[in-house]
From TrEMBL:
A Gene Ontology term for the protein's cellular component: mitochondrion
Highest taxon listed in the record's lineage: Eukaryota
Single GO MF descriptor: ATP hydrolysis activity
UniProt name for this protein: AFG1-like ATPase
Record bears the keyword ATP-binding: yes
Pfam families: AFG1_ATPase (PF03969)
Nucleotide-binding found in the keyword field: yes
Phylogenetic placement of the source organism: Eukaryota, Metazoa, Spiralia, Lophotrochozoa, Annelida
Transmembrane segments: none
Keywords of this entry: ATP-binding, Nucleotide-binding
Length: 193
């Protein structure tokens, strides 16, 4: 991953350094950027309180995102998994070129698992607040079972697989002017001209 990032930076002809994005009167800091390239981690994008608006801001600011250390997830990491799903959906819709290191292949990133203790507690409170009877059909709603996340996991698996394809990378050919030089980035992570 380091070599890939360094190769991208050498082609970018831009200043490497930290950048702070202002999103909805909040500052989101990224220590490692270069031009329209971001090098970051799962922790920084999915374990912090970020949402769709933050991921949209990333799409406006960057064309290539190097994402490190994506773990395998289950319903026990529901919040992080939801952020990851939202992030990948946003990147996919905006044709972000994603270079990713993960604990496993896209088809193995999500395990069904069980709800975390916090989610089980939250589910019990919500069921109580809504006065839902134990064993009723309402208790089996996707809101409580994680069914929505499982469906979204399947979609993200498919998108991640597509995002690493040559066709996806060729769809977005970037022509960026940096100083007096125009850089064309296409295919895997760069052929400059």
């Amino acid at each position: 991953m380091d070599r890939t990032y360094e190769d991208l930076v050498s082609r970018a002809n831009a200043v490497e350094g930290p950048r702070t994005l202002n999103v909805m009167n909040r500052s989101v800091y990224f220590p490692k950027t270069c031009g329209r390239i971001l090098d970051t981690s799962f922790h920084d994008l999915c374990m912090k309180p970020l949402g769709a608006i933050d991921y949209l801001a990333l799409c406006e600011e960057f064309d290539i995102i190097v994402l490190r250390d994506v773990p395998r997830m289950s319903l026990e990491q529901r919040s992080e998994a939801r952020r990851f799903i939202t992030m990948i959906d946003t990147f996919y819709d905006h044709k972000i070129q994603l270079i990713c290191s993960a604990e496993s292949k896209p088809e193995e990133l999500f395990a069904i698992g069980n709800l975390s203790e916090w989610d089980r507690h939250h589910k019990r409170i919500l069921i109580g607040d809504l006065d839902i009877e134990k064993g009723s059909e309402d208790e089996k709603a996707s809101l409580f079972t994680g069914e929505e996340e499982l469906f979204a996991f399947d979609r993200v698996r498919s998108r991640l697989t597509e995002m690493k394809s040559e066709e996806y990378w060729n769809e977005k050919e970037m022509y960026k002017t940096s100083g007096n030089r125009t850089i064309k980035v296409s295919k895997r992570y760069g052929q400059s001209s």
